[in-house]
Amino acid sequence: MTARTPRPPGTPRGPRKPPPMPPEFQPRRGGPPLEASLTLGRRGKAIVPAARIALLAEIGRQGSISAAANRQGISYRTAWDAVQALNNLFPRPLVEGQPGGARGGTASLTADGWAVLRAYEGLNTEMKWVLGALELRLRSGKTDFDPTFLWSLTMKTSARNMLRGEIVSVREGAVNAEVVLDLGDGRSLVAGVTLEAARELGLAPGEPALALINAGDILLAVPPAPGEPPLHTSARNDLEGVVSRLETGAVNAEVHVDIGAGKTLVAMVTHASAEALGLTPGVPVRALIKAGHVLLAVG
Description:
alpha+beta, five-stranded antiparallel beta sheet
């Protein structure tokens, strides 16, 4: 047996090992980590966003605020501020930390911390039951609203234009697929996507989809006057509309085009182009969009 060398007096102890997490929070083999999707709060009271609960769970798994911050993709300062905010919301702290200097420290959840996670997970479970019941009602058609509206309300994107429609046809080529969306009121939009993307998204006639279009990808043209030759373009989409609003910036102008059926497109053009085309509210225009500039999203 090897003799254990005694630690000299005054030598700082290394970071202590965090206590084991409760069994229900142990990572499941092949399963996803603990997730939180609720934001807790009452009117006029402090709100606990889902991100802070997720950070709390990560601290319980990692035993370190720094490691938890890395896993969450946030800075240590942001994580520490979140821990302080959580600790301030409860009678007793949820997280206890032990500084470790250059070698790093440890952090662990207190009994109250694990209790909060259990309560939060319980709420998530209850929400899953509610959503499960709602899904059954949606499938049976026993609701008084279109279930795809929920998807439209929760979609977030950086694209300036989002148009909801129903897929009319999907024509596959050697490499790409041409997808036609019915926007309503006789309007349609054509998107060009790769075959791989079309199959991964499960694009098929009758399915709803969102068309995403950047403002800079929309070209505007003024319809020719009577007697002038017609306008020919290579753009797959040629939508007629009327300028409803014009907002000018330092360099460019944001042009809002009413294309009917309550739908509006927003295009970004230079001041020079806006002046050359005479773009003012009420002027008829044509929005030209290449099929390859139309991105599709499905729920």
